[in-house]
Amino acid sequence: MRILVTGGAGFIGSHYVRTLLSGDDPEHVSVRVTVLDKLTYCGNPANLAPVADDPRLTFVRGDICDAGLVDALMPGHDTVLHFAAESHVDRSIGSDVPFVRTNVLGTRVLLDAVLRHRVRRFVQVSTDEVYGSIAKGSWTEQTRLDPSSPYAASKAASDLLALSYHRTHGLDVVVTRSSNNYGPYQFPEKLIPLFVTRLLEGGRVPLYGDGANVRDWLHVDDNCRAIDVVARHGRPGEVYHVGGGTELANRDLTARLLAACGAGWESVDHVTDRKGHDLRYSLDCTKIAEEFGFRPAIPFEEGLAETAAWYERNRDWWRPLLGRAAPPAVPR
Ligand SMILES: NC(=O)c1ccc[n+]([C@@H]2O[C@H](COP(=O)([O-])OP(=O)(O)OC[C@H]3O[C@@H](n4cnc5c(N)ncnc54)[C@H](O)[C@@H]3O)[C@@H](O)[C@H]2O)c1
């Protein structure tokens, strides 16, 4: 089995690769993994350090938009797991050009090569943000896409493009859409690692608006297990939701992070709200539970405590990255 993992030096992709290669799943003993990653500001070879010497891993630094490179790499692979993306909403509000380029055009380059080289399966890793915002209830996989940010719009476009290759060309495509991931090795511009790293350094943290925005939190390990299940058993042309079952308003999450880091509300700056800030995301995850018995296994309190402890132990990993993080939000 040969797997091509795009974006395998990022947060979720690297977790998937580390788990695949260091786990004891007998099905993975003979697996071979090619990581294709451009190493943008958030791609980090250190994320793959624990498996860097594994002979089953080949790392290729390159761009998914480079059709020649993708065409040369693709033959011989059985499955493509597509994690590579521009992934930070705030950056997409500043400039959406890299988002359309990588998330839409890059996905097209991959799909075209997958089709031409008769790769068995394409797994599109996506997000709940494609649905926009929901005040009450939860989205099912049939809900109409209604993205708010340029990031979400570019992911919606890439999901639809991937699914169109299934309908038009019969390509075996499956899509996962998950809620907000957290865990070790997440680039310190996303909420949890941003807050934890700043608080650990005795700094201040920016809370958008009144902190009422609600997100569902999913441990990266649970998401990677779900992606693996869908990659192996998902039905072609289907979308699967993956949620953590922990909905929290940002102000409640902030309270937990302050407690975990031994800080108080005096460390919080209330900053101007994000443009077009979605109020709430919520996924109905009945389908993946009923078809595969999948449920998240890591309780949020436990996962958050372990994550905060990981950042405390691994300052050498995140300190060099701070200069590359998105510019700070504006205090109100
Ligand atoms: N982080 C979340 O909470 C979350 C939630 C749902 C879905 N997702 C999706 O999961 C995927 C992975 O997210 P993440 O949080 O690990 O992102 P990340 O930003 O940490 O990693 C993205 C990786 O893609 C690479 N990359 C970017 N542009 C590239 C290009 N043109 N060619 C090759 N490589 C390129 C980067 O170098 C990086 O290693 C994304 O598709 C994202 O939309 C993320």
TrEMBL record:
CDD domains: dTDP_GD_SDR_e. PANTHER family: DTDP-D-GLUCOSE 4,6-DEHYDRATASE-RELATED. Residues 4-307 form the NAD(P)-binding domain. It catalyses: dTDP-alpha-D-glucose = dTDP-4-dehydro-6-deoxy-alpha-D-glucose + H2O. It comes from Actinomadura chokoriensis. Keywords: Lyase, NAD. Pfam families: GDP_Man_Dehyd (PF16363). Its EC number is 4.2.1.46. The keyword Lyase applies. This is dTDP-glucose 4,6-dehydratase. The keyword Ligase does not apply. It comes from the Bacteria. Its cofactor is NAD(+). It is an enzyme of class 4 (lyase). SUPFAM superfamilies: NAD(P)-binding Rossmann-fold domains. Belongs to the NAD(P)-dependent epimerase/dehydratase family. dTDP-glucose dehydratase subfamily. InterPro entries: dTDP_Gluc_deHydtase, NAD(P)-bd_dom, NAD(P)-bd_dom_sf. GO terms for molecular function: dTDP-glucose 4,6-dehydratase activity.
